[in-house]
Batch of 4 targets.
Target 1
Amino acid sequence: MPWAVGGLRLGRDWVAAPDPAALRARWAALTSAEGAERERLFRPSRTRTPASGAAALPGQRSAATARFADVPGPCPDPVRVLREPFDEQWLLPDQRLIDTARPELWRVLDQHQLFLVETPDPLVTALLPAGRLGRIRPLHRRPGGAEPNIAPGLLPLLGERYGGWVTPEDLLCWILAAGRPGPRGYGVPLAADPARWRAGLELGHRLLTVQLRGARGGEAPRLPGGRRPYVRSAVTAWPDEVVYDAGSETLGFGGGTVSPVPVGAWEYEVQGVRVLEAWFAARGAHRDPAADGLEALGPAQWPQAWTSELLALVTTLALLADLAPERAAFEPGPALSAGELRAAGVLPPPRWARRPASVLDHQEEGPGGQFALL
């Protein structure tokens, strides 16, 4: 997957939040402030200040392009993004507020796109990754699922080697099963044995299904045996702490309880951080005594939608925990050599494949209403 993009750098935490209503409240507070107070709330950086101009983000035609200090415009509709591993939040899609928004990713964001995020265990999402994550590799270089972001010639070579048609999504599944971090970056051995390829493909497909969590029209994953996490008692107060009882598989927060929460879901970690604990911490960040300015604006009561999201997250983490030993034990067997890939013209990938494709089918509005020249 030659084309890789660094992660978005928001520059200010208040432009993203778990609750879209909080983002609208923050926008209203910022636009109603004036002078030095607006400057303080904005949290200027070297890249973005209220006086900075910026183009409209691709696909966000309602976004204003005048300087924020002159014409803030209406609040843009928040969009769903992946803020942290398995943490889906909301973002104000206004490039005037974001230090590095990666417009090349917004241009190829649609219902056909998937993004591979380079974390210690590779992560695939249908949402735009917009947090402190690893490098991002889109599956497709163009909208509509056109032109896979795969080294030219690789898919035909694999199809000939394995005796069948190999799709871009097949290769993505293989990466989930066989990819491993290494000293030279993320490595993906390509099996020389068709039987190992098929085994990895089957495992990777299960991993992909769980990670997508029902996106792109798929069915939401479920725990085996008819088990399903339920709200056993409703949340009655803001959850200042989260407690877990492994014996009863019960998660307690804000006077409410959810079970069954398998131990694997509670203990699931990414880069040494428990995902569920980080998820709760993100939703209480606005209540932290250290929170200041717009970051302190958030819901006063625990939104019911968050509990529904929690139930889905528990299922996802439990299934991934169940698959983790199988993935760790998977061996791709003897790999295709670099020499064979070079002989087939796959390596090195051409320089153009490492850059974003030209995908403009209309003029994009640049800073101050001028058309962007790309």
Target 2
Amino acid sequence: MSRADPHPSRRAFLGATGAVTATGLTAGCDSPAARPDRPPSPTPTPRVPPTGRHQAGVTLPRAAQPHLLAVVADVGDGVAVGPLLAGLGRAVLTLTEGTDPRLLGLSPGDLTVTVGVGPRLVRGAGAALPGAADLPRFSRERIAPRSRGGDLLLQICAGDPLLLPVVAAALLGQAGDRIRERWRQSGRRGPEVPVTGDVSAPRNLLGFIDGIVGPHTPAEQRRHLWLTGPAPVAGGTIAVLRRMELDLPRFAALSVAGQEAVFGRRRATGAPLSGGTVASDPDLGAKTPDGRYLVPADAHVRRAHPNVVGAGLMLRRSYSTDGPGPGLLFISFQNDLRTFTKTLTHMDGSDALLDFTTTTATATFLILPGFDRQRPLGAGLFS
């Protein structure tokens, strides 16, 4: 009713009374007002756009979803890779939009699917391309042949764990007999712990905040994360996956101080043993009055520190696992595989954390640049 019409019309009056009557009838049946014990409807999870310069699932969403399923597969000999990837990209669009009947009525919510191709396929497109190199072997590995390497990565992340196997089945069905699954691993992240600004990180199964250091700002990501050329790979990145078993009983038997010495950080706060807050850079030169390093020589934060290693930053999106034993699915993204290999080589010598880990699967992939309906997934690289 407008201010210029202070007297309600007969139509407005009937509409209002009709609304009241309908509300009353609804309340008398099964409305929330009549069922005070019914929980409120959950707030819809914001959708993550799948298109753009970069694929979703690396820096989008900003805080990684709590559930992940990684599927690693091989592509059959003679299969045309371009059409395979283009079809997967179209399926990703319909699945994330919620229009794909293969979702079985589930809402996609914050679903992301990130697709990568392994070194064998990259070498087929160009031996000098980023992502063409295989991972070397390291110590503390117990890896079955089918758990090493692979041609195709499907990284599926979501807030709803029911989506993971449903989306994986849809994508594998899309590919059909052109691919053969090698291994898969599901994982979950704990609640996010604030680090600084809008940066947060979860705790791992060892009780410590995981993923504090990384290229978090746009400038750092341009320098350390995203590939800038050649054109077919620009906007992509290099992923490393390492599935590890954790020796929880032996780690839990350490005192809290002993556990903190392994990481070089406080368990409760994530702050470096040299002082400061969780966001502080460790002072690796700080010593006690009797000359001992505050951050031990074999502490993880020292052995993996980019300045000590002489390598770039890695963006880590690691997930805790529980099958067949407690473990960690380590996932790092970087624009140069040497960032990872130099770091792990330096850790391999005397990183105290590695004494509690055994790697059971490993692979590296070129995460393809972003795509849309006009520019299919993998276009330019696998035309």
Target 3
Amino acid sequence: MSTMADVARSAGVSVATVSHVLNGTRPVLPHTRQAVLDAVETLGYTPNSLARSLVTSRTRSIGLAVSAISNPYFTEILQGVEAAALEAGYSLLIADPHDDPEHELKVVQLLHGRRVDGMIVAPSAEPGDLVAYLRRQAVPTVLLDRVLGPAGPEGGVVGQGPFDQVCAENSGPMAELVTHLASLGHRRIGLVAGLPGLSTTDERIAGYRQGLAAAGLDADEELVVSGSSESTGAERATAALLALPGAPTALVTANNAMTIGALRALRERGLSVPGDIALCCFDDFAWADLFAPRLTAVAQPSREMGALAVRVLLDRLAAPDREARTVRLPCAFVHRASCGCPEPRPAATKSSLESTSQSEKGTTP
């Protein structure tokens, strides 16, 4: 196995020069740098990443903490993060906080202990201890999908502190689902909402209410039930909605896992979609068009969000003092037949939402 000394002899330079070329710790003349790189390729030299980290104080690794890695939504986010990290020459360490605040803190501390250069985290509904730790340790961090604090002006977020944030639009797309159902004549539209305390839950409930108001419908709080962001909770929530004296004629589920639970509850009661009840869902997923009827949904740009989170983190590592920013990506309305409309032709068409395509606090990456 070739060593750094072998590379130095082949290139006719000192070992220190080879180190500076490989670690980028000092400018080197172009022809000298090329001679070193040629020697590295010829000899098949592989740098010792541990030794390099001792020299540069960087491990070229990123910690990723997202819950429900088995959820297709987060799986697609993970694919985006992994591809962008690999392209930038970074490895990825992954942990699942299980949406539990205590476990969340433990896994983030574990990742930090592995000396990752920065972290990408989808925080839990109670992230106080996590936030305090990241601030105290000054860990470069991008919050993904879920943001801190209520929405501020121009897409910014109040109280985000030093953290950059990358997420999708939530309120506008949810409002569009509701107004679409209202345009089809529905006046009792139920919402199976996510886990209380998550920004995605709060923003989608706000969008649901905006959609009702835009359609001239009064909000009935009985029609909003928490499905806790998971299938079993959504099955119970759907059953509760169906048991109301004035049961909804249309239903919106606030994530893909809850869509499965809602469909299970409807099937157990022998109800057809959309014949007995219309259904729309927030989160498109790979098999949404395999159901009969195919599911009308809001599609989030999951992979793009993951890749953008990496780029925003790398910007933070390159400029630690830059202003924190929040970037929101647009979603797409995927019109199929579960809402009660005729099946679109061609099979699935997408139209851009009228929500703001991108807003951020600070500069656009």
Target 4
Amino acid sequence: MKAIVQSRYGSPGLLEFRDVDRPSPGAGEVLVRVHAAGVDPGVWHLTTGQPYLLRLLGFGLRRPKQPVRGLDFAGTVEETGDGVTRFRPGDEVFGGCAGSFAELAVADQDLVAAKPARLSFEQAASVLVSGGTALQALRDAGRVQPGQRVLVIGAAGGVGSFAVQLAKAFGAHVTGLCSTAKTDLVRALGAGHVLDYTREDFTTDRYDLIIDTAGLRSLTRLRRALTPRGTLVIVGGEGGRWLGGIQRVLFAALLNPLVRHRLRGLVARERGADLETLRELIEAGKLTPVLDRTYPLADAAAAIGHLHAGRAAGKVVLLP
């Protein structure tokens, strides 16, 4: 089968589109024919090996441990391993696995769910990583409550576009911060108020919860926009080669015991229970993935580059 393979760290241009052995499902696993695979910022980090801290965390010191990139997917079940009772060949599914940038991929059944009927394969392939991150940021780290005022920074991005919709679904009053070209999209997602960061200062107002998915704004500036006992959740932020913006999370953890604000850094994890929650919200019409564009699987490097450049409004998806 064809797959996007990485033998060493470097620019996305080093990724190879070539033949690899067909995988087989083990106990509790399903083999999926991939119809679409989502691209998330983590793909760029794992491709380049930056920040270097990632290598020390077990992803491979000198070269990637997992040679095939990708995590999000949507497709049809080809084969099931021993002990799998929830799925059978032909089922349309979505979820996550290591190595989704391929024609076939093996996934643990606990990270797979029935594809929502109202979504295309392309839309469904964009859900788990970004949607799960947004869900954990709002519900778990942010403890969002109905009636709260929520600011989503990077509201048109992969995580941000889910966060705006989820915050509204949870009954919050949502403000989205984005660039000029993306204000109409964020408004269409359900934000009651949209700020253009190139023209407006978000610190002139106060929010109960801020979800920061983009940039490297200082904690001082972010806290200026919080209510006296508001919560800040740091989800994203690009930085240097060594820490890649993780230093803000570390500073927040050190400062948190000394201030009235709740300062949280989120390290999201893919969870089957979250996938089911997202599926239910999608089926109820409260959540719809937003696609920026699709690329053929062979053009994975271009897709990753487009996303990393910050040009995407919504999700980028590969089509095997």
